[in-house]
Amino acid sequence: MSSTTTLVVVSYFSRHDVVACLSSVPAASIQNPPVLVVNNAPTDDLQPVLEPFPTATLLDPGANLGYGRAVNYAVSQLDPATEWILVTNPDVEFGPGSIDELLAVATSDERIGVVGPRITNDDGTIYPSARDLPSLTVGAGHAVLHRVWPENPWSKRYLKADRSKTPGSEPLQSGWLSGACLLVRRSAFEQIGGFDDRFFMYFEDVDLGERLGLAGWKVLYVPSASVHHAGGTSTRDHSAAMLQAHHHSAYLYLAKRYHRWYQLPVRVAVRAGLAARAAASSLRSS
Prior knowledge:
The protein is built from eleven helices and twelve strands. It has helices at residues 15-23, 25-28, 47-50, 67-75, 98-106, 136-145, 153-158, 186-191, 204-214, 239-257, 264-285; strands spanning 5-11, 35-39, 56-59, 84-88, 92-94, 112-120, 126-127, 130-131, 172-173, 176-177, 181-185, 218-229. Helix 10 (239-257) packs antiparallel against helix 11 (264-285). The relative contact order is 0.15.
């Protein structure tokens, strides 16, 4: 792995996950990259748990910045020589050789802006981390039907990673990649202004993938690199707040896409639909 790559981890009361994540790095890379850990939980003292990791630096912004803004904060602290930013959730554990494999693909073409690995869940299934950009029709069809009819055509189109379930598959061009683990070219990231700070959580990765694509950068899913993602370990105690954040970010993303004055009816319909879905989800969980 190039010494010009830096790993960025955002933690929110995730000390045990951070330890597991950083412990998995040596087997994933021939070099031990520098690490920036952004502590989004000011009352959680992470310094003691980072002592076994000499390449790790703790960044404490003094508040919960949200995910994308915290990554932007870390990027502003990077060494000028850093060319690649490996953004990861703390509850990700890297598979053997996975970081090196991501970097090998990423550096194979100067127009590649971001790559993401195959992500496995706790039960061994593959998380659909490579997806098409959500249009209103595809997004609505997936949102409404995926739970009751997983094989519906809208979900199949949206969940693009389903087409590449084997580790040896070739890289697949995608609309966006899961923000759980991304290797981003720094020059591309900075060209588009990084993550949009308005997304506190969720959809910041969708928005990033779309803007990179619009700027002419390639977005590639790399199933030959594998990581494990526990998923949601820092948010399980805040499910209601996370549901609200998810629907807010979904509206923000679609309002950004359909921003013209004559698309006001679309924005109103999206807001109403998301509010109804949020209410239905709250009833199911109560």
